[in-house]
Amino acid sequence: MPTMDSDNNILEVVDLGVNYGIVQALSNINIHVQKGEIVTLLGPNGAGKSTLVLAIAGILPISNGKVVFNGQTVNAMMAEQLVKLGITLIPEGKSLFRRMKTVENLEVGAYSLRRKQKKKEIKENINKVFNIFPNIKKRARLEAGLLSGGEQQMVAIGRGLMSQPKLLLLDEPSLGLSPLLVKELMNTLALLRKEQGVSILLAEQNAVAALSIADRGYLMGTGRIITEGTSEDLCAMDKIKKMYLSI
Predict the structure, then answer these.
(1) Closest by alpha carbon to 129, among 99, 95, 163?
(2) If phi over 0 gives left and psi between -120 and 50 gives alpha, with beta otherwise, what is residue 170?
(3) Per-residue pLDDT reduced to its tens digit, 93-109
(4) Are 112 and 83 in contact (CB under 8 A)?
(5) Residue 45 burial by CB count (10 A; 0-12/13-18/19+): exposed, middle or buried?
(6) For a tag on the chain, would you pick the N or C end, based on fewer CB atoms within 10 A?
(7) What total number of domains does the chain contain?
């Protein structure tokens, strides 16, 4: 687990607010992710987890506060610019091009590398993804819509890795997966951190699965942070065990 050194933060969210019209969706959000760390956002539906992840990724505008990535304030940047900086979002629901082949979906994730001199790098990145997800290598020429739910999630994560992210944002990646596939997914995320040094911010309703791999977590409710702590501390809190962990 990374040491708690503020100079080691890859992401800082400071007093962030997000409005939907006159409705305040997020209020005074303060979180951070250190380099090489896995941090999870927990909470029920409607807590604001997805809204926070989308705001960090540049998909939703923020009304106040700031997002700092690698020491640079990135509030005003478009999502495409953030991808080039090293922030990649894996959205809820996978969002694959179902009639495109698996390998073509991966190539879409490399749009920031699409210059002639980058073709070799794109091919190398695809091979890296196939090494991480050998199951989808076997399905490389199949349409993505023909893959199982677990395989589609692998393709979605693999597509995100094609842009060589420093920070990976995942929004409810276990949604719709069987318990066995959820375990496999979490093991893969832990492996990505270990082998590639990718920092991960994981918005997840499955608290048990998320806390099994996370270093720290934030519990959200009604658009704000309720509490935070290490995974061990959160698992030990009676309120969290009763409300979110069912243990």
Answers:
(1) 163
(2) beta
(3) 667 888 999 999 998 88
(4) yes
(5) exposed
(6) C
(7) 1
C-beta of residue 203 within 8 angstroms of C-beta of residue 170: yes
Tokens encoding 24: 């305040």
Measure the CA angle with vertex 162, ends 156 and 163; round to 5°: 115
Joined together, the tokens standing for residue 14 give 């400071």
Structure tokens at 35: 């380099």
Q: What local confidence, expressed as pLDDT, does residue 175 receive? A: 84
Report if residue 1 sits inside a domain. no
Q: Which amino acid is at 16?
A: L
Rounded to 10 degrees, the C-alpha dihedral 182/80/52/75 comes to 150
* Neighbouring-strand partners of residue 218: 41, 228
17 touches 29 (CB < 8 A): yes
Q: What CATH number should be reported for the domain holding residue 15? A: 3.40.50.300
Inside any domain, residue 113: yes
Quote the domain boundaries for residue 60: 6-245
The token duo for 236 is: 């030990």
- Name the one residue in this structure whose structure tokens are 């969210």: 13
Main-chain dihedrals φ then ψ at residue 236, nearest 5 degrees? -85, -10
In a domain, 54, yes or no: yes
User: What's at 203, amino acid-wise?
Assistant: A
Tell me the whole-structure pTM to 2 decimals: 0.88
Question: Alpha-carbon distance 109 to 220, whole Å?
Answer: 30
